[in-house]
Design goal:
Blueprint (H helix, E strand, L loop, with lengths): L6 E4 L5 H6 L7 E5 L9 H12 L2 E4 L13 H14 L3 E5 L2 E4 L2 E7 L5 H18 L4 E3 L14 H12 L2 E5 H11 L3 H6 L6 E6 L3 E3 L2 E3 L8 H14 L4 E3 L8 H20 L1
Parallel strand pairs: 1-2, 1-12, 2-3, 3-4, 4-7, 7-8, 8-9, 9-12
Antiparallel strand pairs: 5-6, 10-11
Helix pairs in contact: 4-5, 8-9
Bound molecules: fe (ii) ion.
């Protein structure tokens, strides 16, 4: 249902010069933050076109706000459709969250209540987005630090039900599974149990930070051993799903990220020889 692209990296501005200078051995594809490339002119779009000439590109959005009760932003969907037509991304994704209310938008990705009402609400909105874009999207499990009272099912079950009913995919962020499970006392392997293998269209890996009793999804560290172990489990269950590493702060030299990506390649190879 979803392309198997291999191993990729989240492309960030400090690495624009390196990536546009020539081939990048060890990297099969690049993911970019959609909103940073929505302006039709300018350097980011030029860079994206150049990267796309050599690599599959994945568009990863942060402001769809699919769970909000505000109307979907049609201007945003128009701009996304235009970007898709130009770049022909292999995958388009956003988060299972809400980040706007009453016309006000924030930069946080807030979790949703785990209820049947939310499933109905999100399924209808995903249908609208997919119809507008003419393609399936993936929804990513966010990391969270609080949960609503009155949940009727687990987050994994919520994702699975939405993906099945909306006919969309799941972007499984393994670090976010680990962070949320540690923060809420959930079992990460039981979280994976709930997910349908045929809906997992992409995997994210990232690092996090410790702040008191909480894990915070900061993307400013290498992937930790616990998350690598959970990734190995995910690959064993779901196969060689397109996987990328996200790094958004304390960004290391490009070659350091490529070396880290090799660990994901090793995990996939281990699964294939097992
Ligand atoms: Fe992610």
């Amino acid at each position: 249902m979803f392309p198997r692209l291999g191993l990729g990296l989240g492309l960030r501005p400090p690495h624009f010069p390196r990536v546009t200078a020539g081939p990048c051995p060890g990297v099969d594809w690049f993911e970019v933050i959609t909103e940073n490339f929505m302006v039709a002119g300018g350097n980011p779009r030029r860079v994206l076109r150049a990267v796309r000439e050599g690599y599959p590109v994945v568009l990863h959005g942060v402001s769809l706000s699919i769970g909000s009760v505000d109307p979907l932003d049609e201007a945003y969907l128009d701009a996304l459709a235009t970007l898709c037509a130009e770049i022909e991304p292999a995958i388009v994704s956003d988060h299972l969250c809400w980040s706007s209310l009453g016309g006000h938008t924030v930069h946080d990705l807030w979790p949703l209540p785990y209820t049947a009402e939310v499933i109905d609400h999100v399924v209808a909105r995903v249908a609208h987005v997919q119809e507008r874009l003419g393609r399936r999207i993936l929804l990513e499990n966010p990391s969270s630090y609080v949960v609503f009272e009155g949940g009727e099912l687990g987050e994994g079950e919520l994702l699975a039900e939405i993906a099945g009913r909306a006919d969309c995919g799941i972007l499984l962020d393994v670090n976010n599974v680990w962070v949320s499970c540690r923060n809420h006392g959930w079992d990460p392997r039981r979280y994976l149990d709930a997910l349908p293998a045929d809906r997992i269209g992409q995997i994210h890996l990232a690092g996090h930070s410790h702040e008191g009793a909480l894990l915070i999804d900061t993307h400013d560290h290498p992937v930790c051993d616990d998350v690598w172990a959970l990734y190995g489990e995910a690959v064993r269950r779901f196969g060689p799903v397109s996987t990328c590493i996200e790094r958004d702060d304390r960004i290391p030299p490009f070659d350091e990220l490529v070396a880290e990506l090799q660990l994901a390649r090793d995990a996939v190879a281990l699964r294939e020889t097992a």
